[in-house]
Amino acid sequence: MQALSTLFPESHDDWRLLRIYVAYRVVLAFLLLILFSVSPDNLLIGGYNPPLFLVTSIIYLFLAITSFVLSKKLHTEPRLQAFFFILIDIIAITLMMHANGGPTAQLSMLYLVMVAAGNILLPGKRGSFIAAIAALAVLYEQFYFILTNAEHISAENLGQSSILGLSFFAVAVFSQLISHRFRQVEALAIHKSLEVENLQKLNEQIINRMHTGVLVVNQERHLLLLNTAAKQLLGIEDIVIGSNLKNISPILDAGLLAWRKNLMLRPLIFKSQPAFPELNVSYMKLESNNSHNSLIFLENTAQMTQKAQQLKLASLGRLTANIAHEIRNPLGAISHAAQLLNESEDINGADKRLLTIIEQHCHRVNTIIETILQLSRRQKSIPQLINLKEWLDNFIDEFLQTSPQEKQIIFHTDAPVLIRFDTDQLYQVIHNMINNALRYSAKNNHNAIEVIADVDNINQLPYVEIYDLGPGVTEDNQKNLFEPFFTTEKNGTGLGLYLARELCEANQAHLDYIPQPEGACFRITFSHPNRLI
Fold first, then answer.
1. Can you give the residue range of the structural domain that contains 411?
2. Are residues 72 and 181 in the same domain?
């Protein structure tokens, strides 16, 4: 059996064709038995040898039902099964034809179905072999009755049998051609469908790996598709396909409506959540037949912001290099003159107070110039892989040891957090942020702040949050919080937070203010530690 099975390799659609033919065999066996039994006194079929016809039809029905059951349970070698089933059919029909008194047009036509099925299910020489067996069976029966019943010799019958045998080969040839053509078409369709499926999977992988968020919505603004980047940028993990865009993001929904009405002339820029980067939103009509779908692109403005910051810093460097000389010389002269006047014995107490104010403001202007020069001339970032937990532990210990006053920094982290950042610039940013947090906490008579390091569950990006118990930041001041020279302190330069954000942007990180019911929170969201440098 195993040797025979190797002669009949499976094709893609053989199982479906085999099941159809097996069902046909059961129906045929029932019909033949019913035709024999419907009129016992005047037999419609099998009158030459009724016992032989009855036994053959019963056995054939039993074998047909058995093969019908086996074909559902046996899931191997459909062509091998078809070969044996068709051989059984030819033998059974030949015996019934013999019991009917020789070849007749009605029973002989059944061979055509077997030949056609054999050449469809068994392409090549095996199909021709089935046609040859059927032709030999018809000719054998014809010659048998000619030899045994010489008085019934008829040239017409012999000619019909010959033509019928020839028709078997013609049916075999045409069935082979049609089957071969259908198999080619099927193979081409399967090949094309695999190409389309692979292309679809490739497109899905490309879309999912894009850093640009992509959403597709229909005319009713129901979500049809979104990629992984869109989930991360929107900060929503569980988004159900089919949800209304308004439930996902009211701002995106309002922007889409305005775009459809040609009311939105400027690109939409917004933040999905306070700690998330700004998103540049663009809309596009998805061109397809009878479809009014829309594409929504979400682009992280971090890279554009970083390029803008580099251009701004380059311009600032050239500007400060030009004005530093122009300001420092007269500033130095003013400061030196104030010191000389302060040493004079003719200056009274009130004038000395004015001289002190001059010296303080000279020092403040000089500090501003030094900070700007430091910002514009800073070296290029050299990111390194850092274990944030270990780094913050060492930083906090060193900070508390060098602090002149008793302070408390509460540090929380559940697991090691890896980041990629320039170590010197990270020290500068964290030192600035912790100093600010302690200073503002002290305004409410608190000497403690809280630092939390973790990984965001949605976008899988590491972050550190610094909480203080100070008075917080008003809504009006939040808009200008990171602008240069903006400060609420009397003697502040207004460059601390600006410089901290610039250093974060240079390392592909984000510094954001998160409003709190009490106090303030600043969050640094780092880029993925496995990013390319």
1. 384-525
2. yes
Same domain, 388 and 373: no
3 state DSSP class of 462: strand
Q: What is the CATH number of the domain that holds 470?
A: 3.30.565.10
Global pTM value:
0.48
Q: Mean pLDDT across the stretch 370-383?
A: 68
Highest mean predicted confidence (pLDDT) among 336-340, 373-377, 450-454: 450-454
Give the pLDDT of residue 321.
65
Q: Write the CATH number for 323.
A: 1.10.287
205 domain residue, yes or no: no
Angle between helices 302-343 and 496-506 (to 10 degrees): 140
Looking at the fold, whether 350 and 409 belong to one and the same domain comes out as no
Q: Return the percentage of the chain with pLDDT > 70, whole number.
A: 83
CA distance 426 to 391: 10
Same domain, 426 and 288: no
67, 22 Cβ separation under 8 angstroms = yes
Cα–Cα distances (Å) from 531 to 34, 209, 419, in that order, read: 78, 13, 10
- Cα Dmax for the chain: 162
Q: 447: closest CA among 412, 403, 481, 390?
A: 403
> What integer is the mean pLDDT of 403-429?
85
Kindly report the number of other CB atoms within 10 A of residue 157's CB atom: 16
Distance of CA 508 to the CA centre of its chain: 25
- Lowest average pLDDT, out of 427-436, 491-500, 523-532, goes to 491-500
User: In sequence order, what DSSP letters do the residues of 417-431 get, joined into one string?
Assistant: -EEEE-HHHHHHHHH
40/60 Cα distance (integer angstroms): 20
CB contact at 8 A, 83 and 122:
yes
Among 276, 300, 324, the domain boundary falls at 300
Burial degree of 83 (CB within 10 A; 0-12, 13-18, 19+): buried
Tens digit of pLDDT for each residue in 89-136?
888 888 888 888 777 767 777 878 888 877 777 777 777 787 788 777
Consecutive H or E run containing 114: helix 105-121
Per-residue pLDDT, 1: 40
Q: Is residue 202 part of a domain?
A: no
Distance, in Å, from the CA atom of 5 to the CA atom of 130, rounded to the nearest integer, reads 17
Q: At what angle do helices 155-209 and 105-121 cross, to 10 degrees?
A: 30
Give 402's contacts (C-beta < 8 A, 6+ positions apart). none
